[in-house]
Amino acid sequence: MDVVRYLASVLLVACSLQGLYTAAVWSYARKDRVVDAAKGQETIFQTEARVVVYKTPIIAECSSKPQVIILGSSNANLGFRPEELQPLIGDVGVHNLAIGGQNMRSLRQIVDLIHRQVPKSNRRNLTFVAAIWYGSLVDDKRRWPQGMTDVDLELLRYGLFQKSNLGAVQPVVPDKLLASAFVATWPIMVPRAAYAETARKLVPNKLPPGVPQPWHPPAKVRDSVIVSPEQKLDQVGSYCNYMGPVAEQTDGGLQQLVDLAECISSKGGKLVVLDLPLPTWHSQASMPFEDYERRKKPFVEKLQSIPHVVYSSLQTGFSDDDFFDGVHPRPRATLTLSKRAAEPIRVALDSCTSLNR
Amino acid sequence: MDLISFPFFLLSLAAIVGLRLPLPKLARQLVIFVLSSVFFASYYTTVREALPILGFIAFGYLAIYLVEKVSIRAVLPLFVVSITLVFAWLKQYPVMSLVVSQTDTPFKVVGLSYILFRILHLLVDVAQKATSCPNLIGYVNYCLFFPAFVSGPIQRYPDFKNEIEKKPDRLTSKDIEAALSRIFLGILLVMVVSTLAVDLCSVVQKKLYPHLSLETYRHSTASYLAVAASAYAVNIFANFAGYMHLIIGVMQLAGIQLPENFNQPYLAKNFLDFWARWHMTLSDWFKTYLFNPLMMRMTRVVSSEWLSPYLGSIAFFVTFFVMGVWHGTTLLFVYYGLFLGLGATINKLWQVYLAKAIGKPAYKDLVKRDWYYQLSRSLTLSYFATSLICLWIDPVRAGSFSWLRAGFVGFESFCLLTLLGMAAGVTYSATTRALPVATQNWSARRLEYARIAWLGLQLFLIVNVLLATGAKAPEFIYKAF
Hints:
Chain A is an alpha/beta fold. Chain A is built from 16 helices and seven strands. Chain A has a five-stranded parallel beta sheet, sandwiched between helices. In chain A, strands 4-5 form a two-stranded antiparallel sheet.
């Protein structure tokens, strides 16, 4: 009995501390009601993909009111700042869930993940914004040669999802408990985040393995950097390599976009598809871009025929100086981008009628 | 099977339950045999990989058996040499390729060094009638005893036999507290201190290597070297001592007392004292089976009392040199052995010289002074940390360097390490002096609550560290030796 009482006392102390710690983490991480993947490193989540996967419960919690959720890749991540976009579209929550290097498959995974957590009655309050460029349509096998997306890897990280024999990543808890399960993992992330933050402060140039750092230069540099002709050539070449030979391109990515739109629409939600701008030195020299422009027309028509889906091209109205490389807008251009995007988003929020551009 | 892993946790639970049951001796031996076999098998994917080590164990048993049965004096040295040669061949020491070709068949030698120490101990003690040849299952259990298989502690066979055959005492809350304190401390040392020290070492090495070569040397090179060396010294201690705390704690819960391997080595008075506190069972083994016989032989040949301390320093050099070389098969480990041998010799000669120069009473008085202790301790640690450079430096990444420049950088780094050691030592002394003062008026009940709170806090930290790291513990450094 002496032994049992002793062990129980130790366990009680440990459990009490764990309870206090968990409560402190939850109250801290719940304070911020905006999910912004670009600010991942300033939070306990550390990476864009981890913010997107593990902070989705915040969107579910806020879903009784209209929520705008931006999806896409790094240009959408940097281009649409919730604090700039939100005042332009009224009293709605704005979240940026765009992760660098994503394609249509991972965009669909994020939408499914949110649908799992948001009550059916609230799904009509969700307005997804798929901010795409031709790179978003890259073939799955080419983009994810190991078969696992960034979202898959995050889902599997803490054992809340498991890979089935057929390769599908499925939750091990019921959808009703998924948001709570995600929140339960937050305290686990704190020690790593504290360690990473300390390392970034102490040894910013020689970070230990596993400590993430921003892939892009600081805002000041992004605003002033000049892309040299050699860099332009290199970048266009690398985007062509990323997409693969034009002869091997298919309509797969565009079809996935239409499927995504149908899925969102069928669940009562809205989708705004934004065709993002590129600098002319990129678009004019890129064969995959030309191929994309040629293929997309019938799919845009299909999109416009789906209820609650709005398509808007933002390809015009930007100068080459608005980009700090071949794809990403400079910080000083993001407000203009948000202003351009606000119009179709407002249309989707208000009337759900399609806007042809 | 890693020692910080779920499978080892289950194995430990099985050991605690199995060895706490009131079983007869043979049944206890069978329990240990099964547990050790499971642990041993976890390191191998095929039987072929394990055959060399199993053959080595079988050869050891045959030798011990024959040594007991055949009372010819020449048999013992013959077996000692042949077993050592087989060991050197299995470990693939380059020098063995001069005698016999290396095998191409892949096999693993995890725990081989420690099996060698156990076999040689049994061989010598059985030959000297200090103990008798164990039965086969007892011998296999002794060689493969799962908590000590990977890297000790090296227990003498009679002590091992007594421990596994004795009926465990009833478990009390004090036993639990003692065992949990060891286990928790071990996990925290490995998962937190060792992990952070590894990361610090790798970060500093990234800065160090580009500036180590002759062409790129900078004045900051020495400070990088000092930080990398001290981080590695912290890492090797936290890693090794942490794992030892863990297995000693687990075995305490199972009712088996394993020998201690560490006794606060970084508080040692001098280099020789350091080795009496660091990897103690290995030091004891070398003292019993190398230093003492060597000393006896030399004093038999040179029976001068005046020369005796100098003979001691020679014996120290040989013992520490062999101990250093044992750690690995490359030339760097020869340097490491030379470093250790030289350190022990200088330490011994300094003691002899100082005692003669100022007289024994004044010498005894001097070594008790705090400033002398702090200086001597810091010099010892700097020397140890400097010698450990042989274990982590990558000669390829280090590039071309001159010995003169290496010596200069090494000396600068040594001075910095000494200063670091002094600062750490003074801080530690002040803290340990203050803590008992703060708690001296506490009642027994309050102290018990404090201990429970301390254990609870450690458990809370461990749970969160294990969750945050996915329970990925750093590699056990001594597994490689």
